[in-house]
Amino acid sequence: MSRLAHVTSGPYAPPAAVRELSARSADGARLHVEVHGPERAPAVVLAHGWTCSTAFWAAQIRELAADHRVIAYDQRGHGRTPASPACSTDALADDLEAVLTATLAPGEQAVVAGHSMGGMTVMAAAGRPAFRAHVAAVLLCSTGSSRLVAESTVLPLRPGRLRSRLTGRVLGSRAPLGPITPLARRILRYATMGPASAPDMVEACARIVHSCPRAVRHAWSRVLDGLDLDHGLAELRVPVEIVVGGADRLTPPVHARSIAAALPNCLGVTELPGVGHMTPVEAPDLVTGRIRALAAARIPAVPAVPAVEESA
Fold first, then answer.
1. Which residue of 37, 77, 169, 276 shows the fewest CB atoms closer than 10 Å?
2. What confidence score (pLDDT) does residue 302 get?
3. pLDDT at residue 311 above 60?
4. Would you report the helix, strand and coil content of the chain in percent, each value rounded to 5?
5. Considering only CA atoms, which of 229, 275, 239 is closest in space to residue 92?
6. Which distant-in-sequence residues (6+ apart) come within 8 Å of 256 by Cβ?
C-alpha cells in the first residue's frame, strides 16, 4: 500500500493479518484477501465501500479477531487488488463468491458485513450459490439499492433534476483529490461524515479515500450512478440488520427504510443521530457489536478439537 493508504497508529491503524491470499474471481481477476483471528473461530466477512480498502475495517478487525476469524478483502481497483476493466454489480457478486469459496470450508457459514458499495455487493450476490451456501446473516451499513444520485444530499439543493445532474458530476469527477490538507479534511468530513466526527476518524478516512486511484474512483462512480439492485432484495433471504447514519449525505436513511421494507427477513434498522456515511469508523463499537451479536445468534458453534492424551 502507498504511504497515504492508512494511518499507522491509533484505533484505526489496521492490524497485521494472520495470513494473506489471493482469491480468483470468475473472470480471472485476483483479489487481495486478509484473514485475522483464530482459524477455527466463527467467521466474519467484511466488504468495504467505494474508494475504501480493508483498512476501513481496522476497528472491527482489531476487536473481532480476538474470538472470530475475520476475512476482509479489497474490491477491484481498491487497496491491494489490481484494477480491472470489468466494473459492474455482476463483477462485485463474482468477487464476493470467490472470497467465500476461497476462505470458507464446505458447509461453513459466516456473517457478512457490507458498507456502502460493500452492501451493494451483498445485494448483487444474494441469489448466488456460494452466497446461499455460506452466508448465515448480513449487516448492511450505510448503503442503498438504487437512486443513489437522486437521493444524495451532498449538494444543499432542492431535490430534482438540477441537483441530480450536479451531484452526478461531483461524485463522478475525474479530478485528483490531491494532498490531504485541512481544506481536504473539511470537504471529506462534510460529504461523508457527521459534523462531530473526531479528528482521528477524519484522518483515517482521508488517508484511505485519497489513496484510491482517480481512474478507479471514476469507473466505479459510473456503476453507482446507474445502480438498480431493487430486484435483488427479495433474494436476500437470510436475516439482515441495517445501520445508517442520520446525517448520511451519500446514502441517506431513506435508502435504509426502503431496503428494510423490501427484505424478506429484516431484523431492524438502527439510525444513528449525527453520524454520517462512514458508520464503521464513526460508530465502531456499535457496528462491531452488531456483527458480534449476529455471529453469536446465527453461526453454529464450531466443535472443539478433542485433546490428544499422551501415553504413559
1. 169
2. 62
3. no
4. 40, 15, 45
5. 229
6. 140, 143, 242, 243, 244, 269, 271
Rg of the chain in Å (alpha carbons) = 19
Q: What is the per-residue pLDDT across 177-228, written as a single tens digit (0 to 9) for each?
A: 889 999 999 999 999 999 999 999 999 999 999 999 999 999 999 999 999 9
Phi, psi of 105 (to 5 degrees): -70, 160
pLDDT digits (tens, 9 = 90+) for 245-301: 999 999 999 999 999 999 999 999 999 999 999 999 999 999 999 999 999 999 987
H-run or E-run covering 112: strand 110-115
Tell me the residue length of the chain. 312
Q: Which three cell numbers stand for residue 139?
A: 449487516
Q: Which residue carries 468495504 as its cell?
A: 48
Q: How far apart are CA 77 and CA 74, in angstroms?
A: 8
129 burial type by CB count under 10 A (0-12 exposed, 13-18 middle, 19+ buried): exposed
Q: What is the pTM of this model?
A: 0.93
83, 213 Cβ separation under 8 angstroms: yes
How far apart CA 10 and CA 7 sit, in angstroms, is: 8
Q: What is the structure's pLDDT at 303?
A: 55
Residues 6 or more apart whose Cβ sits within 8 Å of residue 259: 140, 143, 144, 145, 233, 242, 266
- The torsion region of residue 245 among left (phi > 0), alpha (psi -120 to 50) and beta comes to beta
